[in-house]
Write a structure and sequence with these properties.
single chain; mainly alpha; Actin-binding Protein, T-fimbrin, domain 1; 3 domains; 23 helices; globular; disordered C terminus; binds 2-acetamido-2-deoxy-beta-D-glucopyranose; CH_dom
Length: 501
């Protein structure tokens, strides 16, 4: 098992190494920027790489990290739980080099590690058997970087960082380098066991929602990348960026401060603006103040984010209507649409009362809905007939797979279907509806026109057997077009947050 994990890690590192080199190369090639403006793609790519490399930098995967906290400082330990992985890596590095006698603190993976001194201390602390005192004593940074890499190699760190990368302070490559050293030898005592924190059902649910909202925010294409939702929203800045995306022009950037924010009242100011805009959007925010977000009140943060997500979804659907644009779409409209769709497809027994309907749990309604919007998309051989939870989960997993195959973005987990999480049910239904309306033409509201149109669409689908592949091609084009539009929009808006800072 351990061996297998190691192998996959090496495989991962090799692939990532290639990506990183490519990334660095592209970043240095001005022409590429000129022709493709690939900063968004590259940004995303480097984020994916970071997530991969830093996967073990949390207390769940590496409980020994608790050793970084001196004594029984519970507040600091709590902070450790929410620390972003790259920050965790910095903390880990400083922990070792301080013990080894290095006087400075490393705050980033570029300027601060350029001279290779911190690395010399780190490696002599972690691998004294491979280190010589000359590594630390060398005065020439180039020479030192070379010695550092030689030592790292003895620790089985694949060589994909050059001494030049170290001396030039390439942030991406240095981060990857340190992550790899961590992976090979973290130097923490293995007998330290994390305190047993019993997850209450509330915690489990909160962490699933945290994940969903985090994925959602990161899918919006805002400038900030969210690593840890509860921690990262506390400055208010990310929320302002999201609000500006969903309700363009609503944020007064002049009155906002961009992180890093030193003065606490600036955070409160940002969050107060967040609440103010929320109220303008008619969110339910009784007795909620900006300071609650600054304090990291999870319940209120989740409640706020859900209203944001829901608004954004309803807005997307509303924009698909060709006329009566000013009429709001409601949750009920989505419910009616879904029930109608299933009924039209001939599944007259499948019907849900609400997004809380417990019968949704076995996945039957969603499978019927998916095959109603796109015949043949559901392979009924994959559907489990049984009764136990295992098979229930397989049904739920399959639903998410099929929805994704159609091109719906799903931020939730199979458990959310099994347990009938109404938020998940609403968003999943809405994204299937969005997909279907985009494909089959605008939504005119439930009525004869709509049902006739969808009957026609259905009939069309039944006709040709080869049509599916063609359609998939079209879909891809649409996605690309969408992305291009998104990018164009971003270009336009790019100035605004900076202006305010
Ligand atoms: C890294 O941190 C140092 C301070 O420790 C700072 O002077 C330097 O500008 C930072 N470099 C980058 C690229 O942020
Ligand atoms: C909020 O509610 C008020 C009164 O019901 C309405 O006039 C306004 O348009 C709503 N605003 C939004 C953004 O929905
Ligand atoms: C899986 O879905 C099928 C069809 O929708 C349903 O009949 C069956 O009961 C589900 N299985 C479980 C274990 O819930």
């Amino acid at each position: 098992m351990a061996c297998h994990r190691q192998l996959t890690f090496y495989a991962r590192v090799k692939i990532l190494a290639i990506y990183l080199l490519l990334l660095n190369y592209l970043l240095c090639t001005a022409e590429v920027f000129f022709f493709f403006q690939p900063h968004l793609v590259l940004g995303l790519l480097s984020q994916i790489i970071k997530i991969q490399l830093l996967a073990d930098l949390n207390l769940k995967k590496t409980p020994q990290l608790l050793e970084l906290v001196a004594g029984d400082n519970s507040k600091e330990a709590e902070e450790l739980v929410t620390l972003a992985p790259d920050k965790m890596l910095l903390k880990w590095m400083n922990f070792h080099i301080k013990k080894a006698g290095y006087k400075k603190t490393v705050t980033n993976f570029s300027t601060d590690v350029k001279d290779g001194e911190a690395y010399a201390y780190l490696l002599s602390a972690l691998a004294p058997e491979h280190s010589s005192t000359t590594m630390i004593e060398t005065t020439d940074p180039k020479e030192r970087a070379k010695k550092v890499l030689e030592t790292a190699e003895k620790l089985d760190c694949t060589r994909y960082v050059t001494s030049k990368d170290i001396n030039e302070g390439s942030a991406n490559l240095n981060l990857a380098f340190v992550a790899q050293i961590f992976q090979q030898r973290n130097g923490l005592s293995s007998n330290k066991v994390a305190p047993v924190v019993q997850d209450t059902p509330d915690d489990v649910e909160a962490s699933r929602e945290e994940r969903a909202f985090r994925l959602w925010i990161n899918s919006l294409g805002i400038a900030t990348y969210v690593n840890n939702l509860f921690e990262d929203v506390r400055t208010g800045w990310v929320l302002l960026e999201v609000l500006d995306k969903i309700s363009p022009g609503s944020v007064i950037w002049k009155q906002a401060s961009k992180p890093p924010i030193i003065m606490p009242f600036r955070k409160v100011e940002n969050c107060n603006q967040v609440i103010k805009i929320g109220k303008e959007l008619n969110f339910s925010l009784v007795n909620v103040a900006g300071n609650d977000i600054v304090q990291g009140n999870k319940k209120l943060i989740l409640a706020f984010l859900w209203q944001l997500m829901r608004t954004s979804i309803l807005q997307l659907l509303k924009n698909l209507r060709s006329h009566s644009k000013d009429k709001e779409i409601t949750d009920a409209d989505i419910l009616i649409w879904a029930n109608n769709k299933v009924k039209e497809s001939g599944k007259t027994t499948s019907h849900i009362e609400s997004f809380k309907d417990k019968s949704l749990s076995n996945g039957m309604f969603f499978l019927d809905l998916l095959s109603a919007v796109q015949s043949r998309v559901v392979d009924w051989n994959m559907v489990k007939k049984g009764e136990d939870d295992e098979e229930k989960k397989m049904n739920a997993t399959y639903i998410i797979t099929v929805a994704r195959k159609l091109g719906c973005t799903v931020f939730w987990l199979p458990e959310d279907i099994m347990e009938v999480n109404p938020k998940m049910i609403l968003t999943l239904t809405a994204s299937i509806m969005y997909w279907s309306l985009q494909k089959h033409g605008p939504y005119e509201g439930p009525g004869p026109a709509e049902s006739a149109a969808s009957q026609e669409a259905l009939a069309e689908e039944e006709e040709g057997g080869e049509e599916e592949e063609e359609e998939e091609g079209e879909e891809e084009e649409e996605v690309v077009e969408e992305e291009a539009k998104e990018e164009a929009k971003e270009e336009e808006q790019e100035g605004s947050p900076e202006d305010g800072a």
